Queue: 2 jobs
Job 1
Amino acid sequence: MAQAPIARSLTVHYAAIQSIYNMGYSGIMSFAAVFLLDRGFTNAEVGLTLTIASALTLLIQPLVAAAADRHVQLTLRRLVGSLLAAVALLAGVLWLTPALLVPTALLYVAIFCLQSLQYPLLTSLAIEQINAGVSLNFSVARGFGSLAFAALSLFLGFAVAERGAWVIMPIVVALSLSGIALLAAFPPPPRVARSDTARASGLLAFCRTNARFMAVITSIALVFFSHVLINTYTFQIVEHAGGSATQMGIATALAGLLEFPAMALFPLMLARLGRASTILKLSGVAVALKTLLTLVATDMTGIYLAQSLQFFAFALFVPASVYYVNNVIADVDKVKGQALMTMAVGVSNMVGNSVGGLLLDLPGGGVSLMLGIGLAVSLVGLAALFVIDGRPMRHVMLDTVLRQTRTPHEPVLAD
């Protein structure tokens, strides 16, 4: 009985942390093209800058996750706190730096990378509480993060139109400092006994043992290629439909607002459908449909309609992917599993940012060509996901590992 108020309090606290992260994501990622274009970048240069940032994230993320798996209770909050401190420092420097191409690009790459590295660590921060027996409601907390994302996106849309893109960086500084304070006050999970023989595997050994999981996240990387294009080049897409920076903020906010009810309803949907992998496929179908509607949109009404599919697309993917990883990956490798799932979308970020910018600047190219290619790639990934998930997800070897390493308090989640 006493745990219920503690769990609610912890959910509220974690929701505040997620809100800070998602507002920072809105400023750094969603408004990246707006900020960099304002500093004189071309579309191709925006794409190249964000591609380098994504590639750097992909190289570093497994190393950070492996370190967190070995020292989870000692380092998760410190790791994220250190990343936030670095973001605050570099965003402050970028705020005061003249609009020169190379310094701006280098600072933005670093800020983008440091922000991206936080996500799987923050996810694991909640999962370690859940696996220790605390009823923290991850999907609701993550939903509040989406509401915060929507609110800041809406605010930034008006603020950039009124004041200019420079307002983004001081807001990022303030958010990062607030996040450090919230993390410092977040309690460690209750101690749970772990088998003496349970040891985190190396990255290559993990990939060999979990080959089916690696195939799933590869297909997800393809599915979310078009999602990345829409997120990174929202401004260009909105302009193509006759909209403005203010309407871009409204479109982005609409998608964020719709994520909250989807995530809040996720536990009921999981109970009804039974498997998180089924919801992953449903979200993939929604991503493809959202891309199609964006492609054929001729005005802002069409863009708003496409954005409304965020309810079934990314909003369902986020909790489904977390629950899926927590169920099919051994306890000692969960941070690695969450990081690799995040990297699946990170691969799409790296390729999509580069290819999208080139397609926009290509003679005879533009928004329609970019979205058409994005849709084709996503459909290939979706077909692969359905094929890979055509038979039961667990292998006998993986079941054995899970039985040996799952703690008595760990919840059994549908895959």
Job 2
Amino acid sequence: MTSAENRTAIFISHATPEDNAFVRWLGAKLTALGYEVWADLFALRGGSDWSRKLEDALRHRAIKMLLVCTPDGLEKQGVRNEIEIATAVGKSISDPEFIIPLRLSAYDAPFRIAHLQYIDFSHGWAAGFLELSDLLTSNTAIPRSSTGTALDEWLADQTDGAAKLIDRAESLISNWLRIKSIPQTLYYCEPPFGFDLQRFQMRDIEAYPLIPFKGGVLTFASPNDAGELRSGVPAKIVAEISLSKFQAEGWPDEGIEKYVASRHFSDLGNQAFDLYMHRLGMSAFVNQKGRNAWWTNIKLAPKTRVSFDWLYTKGSRKIMGQSGKRGVFWHYGLNAQVRDYPKPHIRLSPRLLFSENGLDIIGDPKKSHRLRRSFAASWRNARWRDMLLAYLWWTSGGMSEIALPVSSTESIVAALPPFSPVAKFGTQESGDAEIVDDDDPDIDYGAWYEDEDEGNEQ
């Protein structure tokens, strides 16, 4: 057999066709690093004596064999034969780690490779490749052509002129609002005998959150002194549970498992957010998933920038404007999803909406998509951040918290501004740049029709 000094190729063993996509991806990545890669997908063509060429490459050209490991693949006789040949090659060149198993999914290792440490690709190809590339590049005995520096040069080009890290702490603004307090008790209420159940379980944006359940509802609200859950809807409390216990254990007595309890909490919280926005006079745009994005129309929206002054940042942004070039109004909308994992929080998602009259959102998804690309393609992170802060400042009245009512006496209370983790390093731009984008000044002339700089033509 050929000595190790004359071997130049990394051989990829796999079961065709199940693993073809992975082998093509891996081969391209290794080639970009400058390695010579041999795999039947790349080397064999119609009419080839494929078995002879494959065996010759493994016996005489391979310096390492990457063994793609899946349960089905390792059952293939061809792969078993290649393992036997590779075991012999490893002994002949005194390389006990000649075979490198790549774990794409859980498998029972054949006897010949049972002792070998695999590289795990089952949790993501990128993660596995990082480990594999570190292993290969640390082994100077594996030839790497000068063309491999092309990747290094490309990476250097991409970072040329990029923001430089500075050794200083920097606050980062997330899209999470930390929930400070929640109601104490969850109730299961039922109507009196003979009352219309459909009416009893009907959700009403003017009322408090509820979830239809069995012959009644789950709610944080309890019947008032008149015995009504809401006007004209009598109710009685059948059972109750502390919310902390409900979240931790579910409600076994009512047949509610813990994961279902988590969904119920989110549902009630989302309804509470919707109720809060509705009471402010905001409008809801319902997306394809049935979620509300809350926005404000021309009658309610502030005509100028909204100035905000949170603890760690201040500035101003509009949350609605008009483009004379496009003949449309744009509206900043926000969807909120209440979650209790990993910690109770409200996750905020922005949405850019458009109207022709400032009142009615354009429903055509294709037209909205084109407008969104035209407006927002050049908007930088700082702009989106500041629009979020301006929106929250305006809807909360500049308060340090937002209370989402769930009954006449209780609310889900979230802290403002959004959760702000602190990074150990910062960048020159993020700490020192003006909050107004140079290429999109967001100039405020005090009139809708004059504000034509709110977006950039693409």
